[in-house]
């Protein structure tokens, strides 16, 4: 695998030779977050971006990016990207195109990446349980997106200097529900909010992912 490199352009950062789901890709991370919107408009917006070859960022892409930043923490562009992400999480909730399907009366559900898009990925797993620090949650009990060598808790702690906390349904839901993941940096914890209100208005991150020749997502 070729060395990961970082470039700063006027509107975006380019990360070359990034490993995403064990596939080599070039990723453009646009510097300005997408406008705040509710979940319904976010789904529509994600589909429109997909038509132009771009997309809203999911948690797999985020964690793979942070792992690359961590491995190249002395690179000047890598430092700028890490600071940018940290500052965003300090200012507002950021929604990612990763979410949870909760099924009525069941502990089992699904973690979904790229919801409603052609490349949507679903991972069945147990999704109901107590809130808590991610490092203390049984990874077999709840699937958290990460395809690299580092665990999400290690990555978020490196980026934010704070532990990673998860909110979710503590008891089975009475009806089927889908909720997008949102990240926000509180004063004490960096939090993945897994059960936030669908009508809340939050920003997101826009990316363009181009896999190496012959590789598909």
**Separation of the first and last Cα atoms:** 17 Å
Question: Mean pLDDT, rounded to whole units?
Answer: 88
Outline the low-pLDDT stretches.
none
Q: Tell me roughly what share of residues is in helical segments.
A: 10-25%
State the helix count.
4
Which H/E pattern describes the elements?
EEEEHEHHEEEEHEEEEE
Q: Please provide the count of β strands.
A: 14
Biggest sheet record: 9 strands, mixed
Question: What radius of gyration results from the CA coordinates?
Answer: 16 Å
Please state roughly what percent of the residues sit in beta strands, choosing from under 5%, 5-15%, 15-25%, 25-35%, 35-45% or over 45%. Answer: 35-45%
The secondary-structure class comes to alpha+beta
Shape: globular
Number of separate domains: 1
Secondary-structure map with pairings?
Layout (H helix, E strand, L loop, with lengths): L4 E4 L3 E9 L2 E8 L3 E4 L1 H13 L3 E2 L2 H13 L4 H16 L2 E9 L5 E6 L7 E6 L5 E2 L18 H9 L3 E4 L9 E9 L4 E4 L8 E3 L1 E6 L6
Parallel strand pairs: 6-13, 10-12
Antiparallel strand pairs: 1-2, 2-3, 3-14, 4-13, 5-14, 6-7, 6-11, 7-8, 9-10, 11-12
Describe this structure in a few short sentences.
Helix content is 24%, strand content 35%.
Question: How is this structure best described in words?
Answer:
There is one protein chain. This protein has 217 residues and is of the alpha+beta class. The protein has one domain (5-211). The chain has helices at 39-51, 59-71, 76-91, 152-160, and strands at 5-8, 12-20, 23-30, 34-37, 55-56, 94-102, 108-113, 121-126, 132-133, 164-167, 177-185, 190-193, 202-204, 206-211. The strands form two sheets. Strands 4, 6, 7, 8, 9, 10, 11, 12 and 13 form a nine-stranded mixed β-sheet that branches. α2 packs across α3 (76-91) and α2 crosses α4 (152-160).
């Amino acid at each position: 695998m070729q060395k990961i490199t970082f470039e700063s352009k006027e509107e975006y950062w380019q990360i070359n030779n990034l490993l995403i789901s064990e596939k080599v890709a070039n990723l453009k991370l646009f510097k300005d977050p997408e406008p705040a919107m509710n979940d319904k408009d976010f789904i529509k917006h994600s589909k429109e971006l997909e038509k132009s070859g771009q997309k809203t960022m999911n948690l797999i892409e985020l964690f793979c990016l942070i792992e690359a930043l961590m491995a190249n923490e002395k690179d000047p562009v890598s430092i700028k990207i890490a600071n940018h992400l940290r500052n965003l999480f300090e200012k507002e909730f950021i929604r990612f195109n990763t979410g949870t399907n909760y099924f009525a009366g069941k502990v089992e559900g699904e973690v979904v990446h790229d919801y409603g898009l052609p490349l949507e990925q679903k991972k069945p797993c147990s999704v109901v349980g107590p809130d808590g620090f991610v490092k203390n949650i049984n990874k077999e009990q709840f699937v958290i997106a990460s395809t690299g060598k580092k665990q999400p808790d290690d990555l978020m702690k490196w980026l934010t200097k704070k532990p990673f906390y998860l909110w979710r349904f503590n008891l089975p839901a009475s009806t089927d529900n889908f909720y997008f993941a949102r990240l926000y940096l509180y004063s004490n914890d960096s939090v993945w909010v897994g059960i936030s209100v669908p009508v809340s208005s939050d920003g997101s991150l826009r990316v363009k992912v181009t896999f190496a020749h012959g590789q598909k997502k």
